[in-house]
Structure formats: C-alpha cells, structure tokens
Specification:
Elements lengths: L11 E2 L3 E2 L4 H9 L2 H18 L2 E3 L8 E3 L2 E8 L1 H25 L4 H4 L5 H5 L21 E10 L2 E8 L6 H14 L1 H6 L8 H10 L12 E4 L8 H11 L2 E3 L4 E4 L2 E6 L2 E5 L1 E4 L22 H6 L4 E3 L10 H4 L2 H9 L6 E2 L3 E2 L3 H9 L4 E5 L9 E2 L5 H13 L4 E5 L5 E6 L2 E10 L1 E5 L2 E4 L4 E4 L15 E7 L3
Parallel strand pairs: 5-25, 7-15, 8-9, 8-13, 13-14
Antiparallel strand pairs: 1-2, 3-4, 6-7, 6-22, 10-11, 11-12, 16-19, 17-18, 17-19, 20-21, 21-24, 22-23, 24-25
Length: 475
C-alpha cells in the first residue's frame, strides 16, 4: 500500500481542519464532551442488541450470531459529490440490465467481440434456462448494490457490482434511525437527505414489475431460506417494512399456473417474489434437486409469465468478477458513453501474461475468486505472511481462471470514535439502487462499511468490519 501521506481522509485536512462537507459536524463534535460521546456509542450497541440486528457467521461454533459494530461518526458526502456518483451508478446499472437482456437473447456484445464467448458459455452463473426469457418489463436487476471505494477528492472506483441478492440495506436504515434517536440536534443543524422511504420505494418498484397474469393489486412476498440464514434479520425487516409476506419455500406451491402461498384462508396467488436465495436452490425440479429451500416448478411458472422473480434468475453473471474487468466495454457498448465511474485496474489470471505478472507480485496485490463474496477466498498481499502467499500461489497456479487480481488501492479513511478520540479507518460504500420500468431510484447514501482494525482494508462484517451512517447533504 502507498504511504500514509497519500491516503485521503474524507473528514480532516491535517489535525483539526475539516473538509467542507464535514465543517458543521466537526464544529459540533469539538464542542461535545468526550465522555458523553463514548456513552452514546455504548447506547448504540444496546439499541442494536435490543432490536435484534444480528448476522450469523458460518463455520463458527461459538458466538455464531453477532452484532455488526456501529460507529457513531457519520460518513458525510456533499450534494455535488453525490450527484456525480448517482449519474455514474445509474449509467452502470442501465448497462448491466441491457447486458443481461443481450446475453440471454441475441448476444450482440459477443458477436461484436467485446466480451469473449467462453466467458459467458463456461460461466457457472450463466443459466441456459434463461435463454430467450424476457422478465416482466425486461428488468433483470430489480435491486442492485454497487460497491464503491474512494482514493481522493474526486477519485471514485467501483469495486464490484452486486446484482444477485445484495444485502445490507436494513443496516443502512437502522443506522440512520439510531443516529436520529441519539443525536436529533445534529439533524436540525445539518440538512441530510432522508433514507427512510426506501421500503416504500422498494414496494412501489417491485409492484411496477408485475407479470402478465397479475389481476388487481400486486401481492408481494419476500422468499427467505429461513432463520438460520446470515441475513434473516434483513429478510424479516424488509418484509415487515414493505407490508409484504415473509415466506419460505415450504409455504409456496404451484396452483393453476401461479405461485400461491399458504394462508389461514387457503392458498393465495403471489405476483412478485423478492427472493433472497441463490439460483441453485430456487427450484429443485430445474436446478439443485437436493434443495429444500426453493419451490418445485417455480421456473416453469416464471418462464410462462405467471410470477416475477426479483432479481431475475441468471443475473449473477453480471456481478461475476471475471465479467467485472469488461465493465468499461459493457458500459460503452450499451450506452455509447465512456463509463463515468472507473473500474479498479484488474488482471485476469486466465491470461498467461497477467498470471505471470500476478505470481511475481503477489505481495503487492489483492487477489479474489471470481465467484467469491464476503471477503472469503481472497489474498490481501501486503497484509499476508510469506507462508500464506506461498500457499495461495499454489492455488492460483492450479486454477488461474478462478481468480482476478487488483492493485492495493489507498482507500480513503473516515474517522471512528475510539477511547482515545478520533482515529482514521478505511471505508467503502454500497449504495442501493431500485430498477423498474418506471425508472431508476438510488437511495441517497447507502451502507458505509468500515474496517475497524488499524490499517486493515477488509470491511466485510464477516471479517470483523463495522458500519457507519452515511449522510448525503442537501445542497
């Protein structure tokens, strides 16, 4: 990683001078009693514990259910910065949706030689059963989470696209609710754009994507794998906030060409399913026959226009990390414009020359599995031991096509509150995007994830990261 001097602190210039978006907050902070702020920080933990905001960590016998640590110093983005980010996110999401329609229909981008055919044909995220299928409204990515990192005043990069089942929006909403309760005076002093209408917008966006067989007011349900899933709190939270039904696979069945849910009055047809289970478990008749989480026959109903599934099956290929490296080409191909938001420079390890370079520079690079998520299966070279690098080198040589590599960026920092005062920590940002035939809605802000360990670049909650409230100023 670069020297500490090159790391962009989003809040402070030098010791005690605040950057413009933080000026009002910083003035307030300097007048606050440190003991009061530390008490508030503990209150936040109590609030989250009482609300039940937890996530599960797989593979750990003890303390498997955890709170995500919450830091009370907000991450603040100016209205000008957000306007540019929003334009870039919308451009990218439009391109992704066009790409998905294309690769499941005429495959013009492959014919044009902009994306290699083997990257699609040999990709496990590409679903043959979606070929020729047009989802209601031609929307594949109803909900998208775009992970963005910052390296300077006007330097933003997309780290990855989450187009399958992006999670974390419940933390965005609860973080804001917590801050409103603890520091109401701040929101009187500083004009922050609200995020609380996300559930209403989600319901409205999903309801605009109804299938042809919908008759009357759309019935929306959230399909969850159940209480043992790491994001179950979020599934239940969103269903409750939207006024939608929370269902599991065993609650649903195919009746008269529709998907119907069991109720106390018999079975009621559903129009839109916001599914939070992976493609492979969605339908045991069409995918994994061992799955007990999905609904037998749901893909047949979907292809016949009897149900909307959000996000559409097969969208996972758009957030595959091998496809990621082609995103600048994809944006240009479908929009005719240069990408507003840049990609992080990426080496595809399937390429011999790239693999040679990566193997020679493992101690400098971040190497990721193309199908990986959650911070697992990756190597952060500068933070790895010689033994870890040697072991990873063998994995990489055995299956180079499974990996991409990227430089270790000097990610921006935002201070967290520690017992000794403010201390800089690296952050990323996941804005949440809703897509329907009526347009694209981007919630102002999103989920800021923060690496709580000094110097760490891994922000994932499963790897010890925390979260912050994200403020977009009204300007």
């Amino acid at each position: 990683m670069d020297s500490a001097k090159s790391i962009f602190d989003e809040m402070l210039v030098g010791e005690n001078e605040a950057r413009s978006p933080y000026s009002d907050y910083h003035g307030w902070f300097l007048e606050e009693d440190a003991a009061r702020l530390n008490r508030k920080s503990k209150e936040a933990e109590t609030f989250f514990r009482r609300t039940g905001i937890t996530f599960n960590v797989y593979g750990q016998e003890e303390a498997a259910e955890r709170l995500i640590p919450f830091d009370i110093v907000p991450r603040i983005i100016s209205g000008r910065e957000w306007a540019r980010l929003s334009r870039g996110i919308e451009q990218r999401v439009r391109a992704i949706n066009s790409f998905l329609y294309d690769i499941y229909h005429r495959q013009e981008i492959i014919r044009a030689g902009r994306v290699p055919v083997e990257l699609i044909a040999q990709n496990e995220a590409f679903l043959d059963k979606m070929i020729g299928v047009a989802p209601p409204g031609n929307i594949y990515t109803h909900i998208v989470g775009t992970d963005i990192v910052r390296t300077g005043e006007d330097q933003f990069y997309v780290l990855e696209d989450n187009a399958r089942t992006p999670s974390g929006v419940s933390y965005m909403l609860e973080n804001r609710e917590t801050m409103l309760q603890m520091f109401p005076e701040l929101f009187s002093k500083i004009r922050v754009q609200p995020v609380s209408d996300y559930p209403k917008n989600l319901r409205r966006s999903l309801s605009a994507c109804v299938p042809d067989k919908c008759d009357g007011k759309p019935v929306v349900a959230v399909l969850t794998p159940g209480i043992h899933n790491s994001a179950y709190f979020e599934h239940a939270f969103l269903a409750d906030q939207m006024g939608a039904e929370l269902v599991e696979g065993h609650d649903l069945r195919v009746i008269d060409g529709r998907i119907a849910m069991r109720t106390t009055r018999g079975y009621t047809p559903i129009d839109v399913i916001y599914r939070r289970i992976d493609d492979d478990f969605l339908d045991p008749l069409n995918f994994n026959p061992q799955s007990l989480l999905g609904v037998p026959g749901i893909m047949d109903v979907y292809r016949a226009g009897g149900i909307t599934i959000a996000n559409a099956p097969g969208t996972g290929i758009a957030d595959d990390k091998a496809i990621y490296s082609y995103m600048p080409d994809i944006v240009e191909f479908y929009t005719g414009e240069t990408a507003i938001l840049k990609n992080v420079p990426t080496w595809r390890c399937s390429d011999d020359d790239s693999l040679t370079y990566v193997l020679e520079h493992l101690d400098e690079l971040v190497v990721k599995e193309v199908h990986g998520s959650g911070g697992y299966g990756m190597l952060v070279g500068p933070a790895a031991s010689k033994r870890e690098i040697a072991a990873f080198r063998e994995k990489l040589k055995a299956k180079p096509g499974n990996y991409i590599a990227q430089p270790t960026l000097s990610l921006s920092t935002v201070p967290i509150l520690t017992k000794k005062g403010l201390a800089p920590r690296h952050v990323d940002l996941r804005p949440f995007v809703l897509v329907s035939p009526n347009g694209i809605n981007i919630t102002p802000g999103g989920l800021t994830r923060v690496a709580l360990k000094k110097g760490s670049l891994v922000v994932n909650s499963s790897q010890g990261g925390g979260t912050k409230d994200t403020w977009v100023l009204e300007e």
